[in-house]
Amino acid sequence: MTRKSTQPAPEAVNGSQVRITVHHVTRVEGHGNIVVDVRNGTLERCELEIIETPRFFEAMLRGRPYTQASHITSRICGICACGHATASLRATERALSVQLSDQTVLLRRLVMHGEMLDSHILHVYMLVAPDFLGVGSVIPLATSHPDIVKRALRMKQFAGELCAAFAGRHTHPIAMTVGGFTHFPSRQQVEALRERAEALRADVDATVELFATLPYPQFERETEFVALVQPDDYGFIDGMIGSTDHPPRPVDEYRQVTNERLAVHSTAKHTAHQRESYMVGALARFNLKHMHLHPRAQAAAAHLGLSAPCFKPYYNSVAQVVEIVHCVEDVVRLLDTALERGIVPEDPAPVTLRPGARGVGAVDVPRGVLFHEYQIGEDGLIQEANCVIPTGQNLGNIDRDMRALVPTLLSEPEDVIRHRLEMLVRAYDPCISCSTHFLNVEFVGK
Amino acid sequence: MLAKPKIAFFDFTSCEGCQLTVIDALQTHLGLLDLVEIVQFREAMSEKGDDYQIAFIEGSCTRESDEQRLRAIRQQAMIVVALGACAHLGGVNAMKNRWPIEDVQTYVYGQAGRNLYESYPARPISEVIEVDYAIPGCPIDREEFVRIVQRLLQGRKPKLPDYPLCVECKLAENACLNKLGKPCLGPITRAGCHAICPSHGDGCEGCRGFISEANFTYMREILRGHGLSDVEIDAQFTMFNYYQLAAMGADAPLSQINGNGHRRHAADAEVLPASTFAAPKEA
Amino acid sequence: MSLYILPKERLPGFVDNLRAGFRVVGPVRTETGYAFADIRSADELVLEYPTTILPPKKYLLPQRETLFTFRTGKAEDGAQQIEVEPVFQDVQPTVIFGVHTCDMHGIVLYDKVFSQGYKDEHYCARREQTYIIGIECLRPCDDASFCKDMGTLTAPPVYDLHMTAVDDNYLIDTGTEKGERLLLANVEAHLATTDDIRRLSQTLSAKWPHFRHRLKMTKDQIPSLMAINYGSHIWDTLGERCLACGSCTNVCPTCFCFDVQDEMALNMEEGERARMWDSCQLREFALVAGGHNFRASKASRVRHRMMRKGKYIQQVHGITGCTGCGRCQRACLVDITIPGTLNALYDEMQIDLSSATGA
Amino acid sequence: MFEMASNLTTTTTPRAVNGHSSIYLPTIAQVVDVQTETAFEKVYTVRLPGGQNLGHRPGQFVMVSIPGVGEAPISVMSSPSRTFDTFKLCIRNAGDLTSVIHNTILPGDYIGIRGPFGRGFPLEVFKGKDVLVAPGGLGMAPARSLIDEILDNREEYGRLIVLYGAKNPSEILFRDELRAWRQRDDIELFVTVDRPDESWVGHIGVITRLFPRVQINPFKTIAVTIGPPVMYRFVVMELLGKGLTPDQIWMSFERRMKCGVGKCGHCQVNHRYSCQDGPAWTYAEALAFEEAL
Ligand SMILES: Cc1cc2nc3c(=O)[nH]c(=O)nc-3n(C[C@H](O)[C@H](O)[C@H](O)COP(=O)(O)OP(=O)(O)OC[C@H]3O[C@@H](n4cnc5c(N)ncnc54)[C@H](O)[C@@H]3O)c2cc1C
Ligand code: SF4
Ligand code: SF4
Ligand code: SF4
After folding, report:
1. What is the fold of A57-393?
2. ipTM more than 0.95?
3. How far is B266 from chain C (nearest CA, A)?
4. Closest CA relative to residue C110, chosen from C167, C44, C61, C170
């Protein structure tokens, strides 16, 4: 990004002068910079610059057969690949009036749970935990805390294999197609997964214990939370768009929530709903539907000191740990259902092509709500496409958190400020490769 | 044999799935950390070292400022390895090359977004710097990644298969998708992924690039036999290999590329209008 | 050795008994067809199957097979040290159930190749512990089959047991003594009566009309047909079409070429050398140092395959190099087939002949 | 047909597993000396365990391997007459395995050896005859084996004529030996280079340019030519022009080889296996295989 920002209005802060730049914030997916500039007690600039190159997926989809859309868009993000594929498939399926079988719905849920686990484990263990354990990455942890690293890898491996059993692969799923699946695991495979999921509980408990001991910054700022909501379920696919400020809306009305606009300092578009910004992701989901969590997850939340409503952005990681507990329990339950019903190879459900068919797909991926919307012609070629990505939705909120946070930190040494800001950005688990890519904090003078 | 070489990972325009695959490889190959010293891996670590011998580069080059970074890496590294389809082929990123870049920008960011962000047609990194080896795939195959690192440690040149995917697909005794009427680019795509897509019932999309002997003419015939239109066949061929095919100019086995290799799709209007879907409100 | 009769309903019991002491493999149903696979319960075995993608050769010469393991290291003086240890993979008592007659002809060739000259004990050790239970083909697998032309429609003497379905029974011929012991030790079977044998004969003679001839020449004419046509332009036509995908050779019951590769463990000190199926249809098969490729063109590779099937194997081993199983035709996406090629060569010669004689 | 060389047990002593032994298991042998010949070739002196004799004949090859890297066929360069407890290999840095050998193998290190394999030259047929040896490039390595064998049993053969072609002076192998041979009157040596440098005073041009310089008795001469595939057609023409019959002309057919024991199929020339029935064949035999030349 070469552009100069013109956006933020100067805000008064206490006396000091701080200029901070963090170039290419690390341990996040994608590239971004944090820029803080405080002069004569005025916060001149405070923003997260998204410096990832724009990737133009919406343009790429134009003129392509709808069958390719989920495979192309999974390449938006290596970590939410299954989520993008699912949102893409849902958009296509809703456009082309596809009725999914119960089995397809069940298997898709399992895949999303796998991805949720994979992503959350990666995030809390490998990206967040090093901040609290005083190291720069997971690599020194392999020597200093081998048990922790091995546990993380073990859990992640299960998550990846869960995705792979149904979708063929976690990063860029293969077997998920419009209307269903192209591959089905054997009963033995499913039984083995069921057994391993159950055995994972010990690791899950150890995870909760570990994260219960970490000192999370208590910074707090009231904001709006947005997540997909379903009656009686802590689900991730489909549902209504729930908000802490507004009654639920159908997903087709997503534009009224996201209100995308350009932010000059960012290749990702910003969004705003009822307020200037809102937050999506694990904490938003927790705040909106904690009552549907598995009892073990609810207990874990209590143990971790998380209760709704929680306005502490650093606690997004805690909410992720709670979701890990929930997902493992739910996977056991879903696998039991699969075994009970038996997994029967079936052809994908048929599509109905008609002129100008439109559909919106919504999936709550690890980082928050993701929308895909397509218009598909009678020839099966995509005419228009739009993808609204969770990190894009969080960016405005991150900027505002930073602007509220910096004044409280001005007495701290620069390193601390820098680290706090980086941790804040990381807490959101931004996936900037999605919103195109991400991170860098720039402190300038003090 | 290099004694515990220092390696570094860099990312350009990509989904970072290949770096994630490297992290995933640790699940089963934690011993890798004993063989190499990772000095840079932005996605996973904050420490940074600038003295490395092997650079793994993920992602395509999609803007001028990338070129400078690439050249700096080349200057430092003894060995540069392109990691994954984006770096190796241009990959999915190059699909946008079909239109002039300004049109693409307008389409996604609206009129105000035209030229707002730096971007140009996506290229494989070998178009900018000399690349020693490539690890193909979207994403890379974990086992292949480990194998190639091992070969580099032995002081050997990694070698990629130059035969089609069908070989591995047959060894796995899959029912051939093309025989079942489902499009699969296996016959022209470089093997090495154990035919993972056909093994999961889905046709190969060519993410590992084409073999040197690719028989496009008969591949097209096969796809036509499934009732695919020319536009659909072009779409199949160009999902990961747009850059390579466009570079073939008039010889490209595409129905929609005209004589001077121009990348405009016949079905599209001259100028890509701002999308009614994607272009946001102006700030 | 004699003929036995086994009521069909006793087959599951036989299979289950065998499973107690053997690895039992045989044709099973898959999502899209049939494949040889481990039989985990008797009801998985399907003896009336048309054909499989891979022939049972995969149990005799696995797709990938470890030949030996090694460990390398440095001695005190810094010199490299190496230890090697041979590996004989999958050597275990195995019963291959339901082998079609064409595939048994393939095994005859394999036995020759791997036991003649330098004896390949990786193969032979496994083979010695393998029991072949054939099944008589009473109907052609499909239109791709041309076993009748290749003379592979009857079982060669390579089986331990050979079963023919006759009404509600299997008539079982014992090809070897160990086969006979295997049968009698694992199921209650009785010697066939003259009546049974009469019905067997009827069944066998009745099967022939179901099979058709696809070749315009006899099997014995093929080697000369190939010899004369080494320079035919037909190879170029086929070479243009060929995808060089190697599917034809990988599915072929008489192809056995392999590549050898080393693999290292992560510690870079241990590892193994393994062989894996290779194909003469692939570009690098005959590529040597200096970049010279002895079969650079696809035409020369297609010709080599056809020559092997039609002539070379016959020359070296005295038996047909093609079993007429039709697998390569089923696998080929550009319709390069053995009957099609042989007939085209034959037709070409008829035209040449008629023009030469001025007819 | 000559008998098949199946003396593999002389060098490979595979340890058996459950009574089975492997034809693919190399014998671990020690490299006792390494000499640099040219920028591309080094000569390795190899000692089998216990100083066992390799027991080869000229024209045969061994499979050389480094476990973890791979295996490749390499001709035995030393003659049987000079092979006691060690034998020599001249290895060109041509690819994967050979570059690792060049870069890492030092005296004292171990490599894997299988063989000798192949048919080799039938010395019993050569005996009493004039022998014309025409190696090109690296073909000089296997030719050495034959030349030294003849020199060491000089009285059993007639004339010995060596016509050697190299690309350029720096690629000429065995310069010391060539010098020594020049001193002898029982060997007629001609050397030519395609591309001379300033220091070169010898013959210039491709190997066929040497043929007009020698007169031979076509009734009692055996010719042996070993070199890159392109060379054969031209050399054979010269030899036929001198009145030799196809069965008096021997040549070595190097193909890709993965097993060395007639199984893997890579070295096939028509229906024949170069590793078994070759690599040395007469031109008469080769004429029967369309793929040979
Ligand atoms: C009977 C016989 C005797 C021999 N005697 C000798 C001898 O005495 N001395 C000697 O030095 N050599 C000898 N050779 C040759 C030697 O075996 C080969 O050079 C062998 O390939 C070397 O193995 P490598 O692993 O080092 O090379 P490889 O890695 O196998 O490469 C060898 C060559 O194959 C080609 N190649 C491989 N892969 C590719 C690719 N992907 N694309 C393009 N080209 C490729 C290249 O031309 C490369 O140079 C002999 C060969 C035979 C058959
Ligand atoms: S499914 Fe694809 S890769 Fe597999 S054999 Fe068929 S064409 Fe080849
Ligand atoms: S099957 Fe094709 S698309 Fe799938 S991973 Fe392999 S090369 Fe890529
Ligand atoms: S003949 Fe057919 S199956 Fe064989 S390599 Fe050619 S295209 Fe593939």
Report:
1. Cytochrome-c3 Hydrogenase; chain B (1.10.645)
2. no
3. 29
4. C61
